[in-house]
Amino acid sequence: MQDQSTxxxxxxxxxxxxxxxxxxRMEYSPHRLEQIRRIVGARLRCWGLHKLVYDTAFVATxxxxxxxxxxxxxxxxxxxxxxxxxxxxxxxxxPELFVIPTAPPDFLETGGRGLFLVSAHARAVGVLPTxxxxxxxxxxxxxxxxxxxxx
Length: 151
Fold this sequence. Notes:
The protein has 4 helices and 6 strands. It is about 30% helix and about 25% strand.
């Protein structure tokens, strides 16, 4: 079922200064992923990081789509600039911490590929516990895109 047009995204922090991070809180639904891709693209273009748009939008979509497995589907998405690229964070209320896969998953399974693909596109990926759930984060660097792969 699609969200009604009256659904709103709560903007937590959006600063006028371009180097500041952008954070939003929303409830998961599949069509929210397109909104995340547009936000990522707009922010990266403002920062002059055009070459990171595709990979970062992909990683953001994968991180946010995992919220569908949480009982409470409300989450916070943040994108911030780093010295060499960007950092994405998705905060949810699930206390489940998982290991980021380093070996290819069984591609015949119906799930379980997302975080492996994220780790293939990002310089670094991790999961941190919080008082109310967890933060899943990924960092992408401009040099990785220019050289054709994550380090």
